[in-house]
């Protein structure tokens, strides 16, 4: 897995340079909030190179899983078992994002980042990457 220094050295790159950038889902309609959220998350994540960057890789995976979840919920394909499987995969990826955020917070020079709760840390990390 990537070290924290690898995560810190992430630079915005063009989407064409990231081999992990596989997101082949149709644009959302107005009545598709999950698909809209998946597209928005993917747009943010694709600004970063995900090779050797666990946080960005997990984020891209969550975006793809959210799009798949949207299709299952809308009845476009899949079964209840597929719905449960995708939901569990999203939960696992969310744990990876939390793990990465906590690791970043531990190395942060701002003492407040070391003492806040997990949801706050994750929120701060997401805010940082969306700037």
Quick overview of this protein structure:
With 131 residues, the chain is an all-alpha fold. The chain is built from 6 helices and no strands.
SSE topology:
Layout: H1 4-8, H2 33-45, H3 54-73, H4 80-107, H5 111-115, H6 118-129
Report what the structure shows.
Belongs to the vinculin/alpha-catenin family. Residues 1-17 have low confidence and may be disordered. The radius of gyration is 16 Å and the shape is elongated. The protein has helices at residues 4-8, 33-45, 54-73, 80-107, 111-115, 118-129. The longest helix has 28 residues, at 80-107. It is mainly alpha-helical. The protein has one domain (4-129). The protein has six helices and no strands.
Distance between the termini: 25 Å
Number of strands: 0
What value does the Rg take, in angstroms?
Answer: 16 Å
Q: How many structural domains are formed by the residues? A: 1
Q: What shape does the CA trace take?
A: elongated
What percent of the residues sit in helical stretches (DSSP H or I)?
55-70%
**Quaternary structure:** single chain
Sheet with the most strands, sense and barrel status: none
Q: Please state the average pLDDT score.
A: 77
Q: Can you tell me the residue ranges where pLDDT is under 50 for at least 5 consecutive residues?
A: 1-17
- Structural class category: mainly alpha
Specify the number of helices. 6
Strand content: under 5%
Order of helices and strands: HHHHHH
Region (Disordered): 1-31
GO cellular component, one term: cytoplasm
Protein name: Vinculin
InterPro entries: Alpha-catenin/vinculin-like_sf (IPR036723), Vinculin (IPR017997), Vinculin/catenin (IPR006077)
